[in-house]
């Protein structure tokens, strides 16, 4: 079940994350040039409306279609998205997430149905007109049916969000958000749920608190500080570096293993999230666009004029509460950790197994029951994460540095979304919870490693020794 939710969430995020740059562009223009912005400009402010109404939904629709069926799917997906855009008065992000993939799927099925049946010399004619005719039908469907339905759903969600906010229940969303993040549903929560609501609020109010709920780095910072101060062994030693990567780099995945190895600390990050959300609500704080990644720099860049106190206060309160609640839990856990070895003796055998993922968590992509035995030369290593733009980017830099130090500079190391692993990859590294999805995506014979820590994993040394 969790894997299916992750896969669906990953697909939603895969439509949004490649376009985050365009969202940030729109957010910066909004923050600077609207009447309440830093440098109000009536002429330049006219860019805000068309970009949110047309550009961003069509980009999502194109990306959704491309995910299903390449560039041809992207073109039909973008055309189909235009039907929901024109047929509604609200930004159609949810509609684009429906029509984009649907357009890609329809043209894919058409091509499969007519493959080998088109007379020689008529291929281009049939291909172009089939895309055009199917695109037209999808536009009409979107304009007359999908658009109104999505508009009704959006209005309902907006009203529900407003009711939750007015009832002061918004902070309690942290009870769902923080466990969801640790299960690698962070991108699905942020880009699939909160971003569409936030964008609609920005159009009406100029900012939205929904952009802060998942991206706030405060709760994770508090947890990592607790490990730094009260932890022992690996947790304590690695916490300072993790703090820098999490808070300044915006890679929230870095603190998930700290929760997973001591699950009770989820109480701390939930408490931090509730306190932070309550602070945002009381101070009427919000952002103009989703900060991606969730770095303190991105948070500040998306903060509208006059909201810095509220945003910074919420982040600080979230970190402080998370630290206070997590500290006794970390101290209690650390009491079972040996000072010299840094290992919990009661869990030593299980820990040793999990810390030797080089063998225990290696899969042959063609047969999960058999460990990889293919010793072909390694030419390409792929780091795969949920969206291909978070922890995997950081890990690429780490491994490139290690390979360079070992004098092995002829190996290509790239990052990718777990759903888009290149078929020519020789080795794939991914988070432990994503190994099954990586196995389904990678080519048969690819060696797949599930790792828990992209910074200090022992897998790197074994891979380098085999290269």
TrEMBL record:
What keywords tag this UniProt record?
A: Cell membrane, Membrane, Phosphoprotein, Phosphotransferase system, Sugar transport, Transferase, Transmembrane, Transmembrane helix, Transport
Where does the UniProt annotation locate this protein?
Cell membrane
Q: Where is the PTS EIIC type-2 domain?
A: 8-339
Which residue ranges run through the membrane?
Answer: 12-38, 44-63, 75-99, 133-157, 209-230, 242-260, 266-287, 308-330
Residues annotated as domain PTS EIIB type-2: 379-467
What GO annotations for molecular function exist for this entry?
protein-N(PI)-phosphohistidine-mannitol phosphotransferase system transmembrane transporter activity; protein-phosphocysteine-sugar phosphotransferase activity
- Look at the named UniProt entry and state the broad enzyme category this protein falls under: transferase
Q: What's its catalytic activity?
A: D-mannitol(out) + N(pros)-phospho-L-histidyl-[protein] = D-mannitol 1-phosphate(in) + L-histidyl-[protein]
**What's an example GO cellular component term for this entry?**
plasma membrane
Protein's GO biological process: phosphoenolpyruvate-dependent sugar phosphotransferase system
Name the CDD domains on file.
PTS_IIB_mannitol (cd05567)
Q: How does it sit in the membrane?
A: Multi-pass membrane protein
What EC number(s) does the entry state?
2.7.1.197
Function text: The phosphoenolpyruvate-dependent sugar phosphotransferase system (sugar PTS), a major carbohydrate active transport system, catalyzes the phosphorylation of incoming sugar substrates concomitantly with their translocation across the cell membrane. The enzyme II CmtAB PTS system is involved in D-mannitol transport.
Q: What is this protein called?
A: PTS system mannitol-specific EIICB component
Please tell me the species this chain comes from. Answer: Acetonema longum DSM 6540
């Amino acid at each position: 079940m969790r894997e299916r939710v992750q896969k669906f969430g990953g697909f939603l995020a895969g439509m949004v994350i490649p376009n985050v740059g365009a969202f940030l562009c729109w957010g910066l223009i909004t923050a600077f040039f609207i009447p309440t912005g830093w440098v109000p400009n009536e002429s330049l402010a006219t860019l805000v409306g068309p970009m949110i109404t047309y550009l961003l939904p069509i980009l999502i629709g194109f990306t959704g279609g491309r995910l299903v069926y390449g560039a041809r799917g992207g073109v039909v997906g973008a055309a189909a998205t235009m039907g929901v855009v024109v047929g509604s008065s609200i930004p159609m992000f949810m509609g684009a997430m429906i029509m984009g993939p649907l357009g890609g799927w329809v043209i894919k099925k058409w091509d499969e149905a007519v493959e080998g049946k088109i007379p020689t010399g008529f291929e281009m004619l049939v291909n172009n007109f089939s895309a055009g005719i199917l695109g037209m039908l999808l536009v009409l469907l979107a304009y007359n049916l999908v658009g109104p339905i999505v508009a009704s759903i959006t209005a309902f969600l907006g009203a529900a969000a407003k009711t939750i906010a007015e009832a002061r229940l918004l902070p309690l969303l942290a009870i769902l958000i923080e466990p969801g993040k640790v299960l690698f549903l962070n991108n699905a929560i942020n880009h699939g749920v909160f971003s569409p609501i936030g964008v609609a609020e920005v159009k009406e109010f100029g900012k939205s608190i929904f952009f802060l709920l998942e991206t706030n780095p405060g709760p994770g910072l508090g947890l990592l500080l607790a490990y730094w101060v009260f932890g022992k062994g690996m947790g304590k030693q690695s916490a300072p570096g993790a703090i820098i990567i999490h808070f300044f780099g915006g890679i929230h995945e870095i603190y998930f293993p700290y929760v997973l190895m001591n699950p009770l600390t989820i109480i701390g990050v939930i408490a931090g999230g509730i306190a932070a959300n309550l602070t945002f609500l009381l101070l009427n704080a919000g952002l103009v666009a989703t900060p991606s990644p969730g770095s303190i720099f991105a948070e500040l860049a998306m903060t509208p004029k006059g909201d810095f106190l509220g945003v910074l206060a919420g982040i600080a309160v979230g970190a402080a509460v998370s630290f206070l609640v997590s500290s006794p839990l970390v101290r209690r856990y650390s009491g079972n950790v040996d000072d010299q070895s840094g290992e919990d003796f009661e869990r030593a055998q299980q820990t040793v197994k999990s810390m030797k993922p080089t063998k225990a968590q290696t899969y042959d992509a063609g047969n999960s029951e058999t460990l990889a035995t293919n010793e072909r030369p390694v030419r390409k290593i792929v780091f795969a994460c949920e969206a291909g733009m978070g922890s995997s980017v950081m890990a690429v830099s780490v491994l490139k540095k290690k390979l360079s130090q070992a004098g092995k500079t002829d190996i290509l190391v790239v990052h990718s979304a777990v759903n888009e692993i290149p078929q020519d990859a020789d080795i794939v590294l991914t988070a432990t919870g994503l190994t099954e999805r990586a196995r389904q995506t990678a080519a048969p014979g690819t060696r797949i490693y599930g790792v828990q820590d992209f910074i200090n994993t022992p897998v790197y040394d074994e891979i380098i020794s085999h290269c």
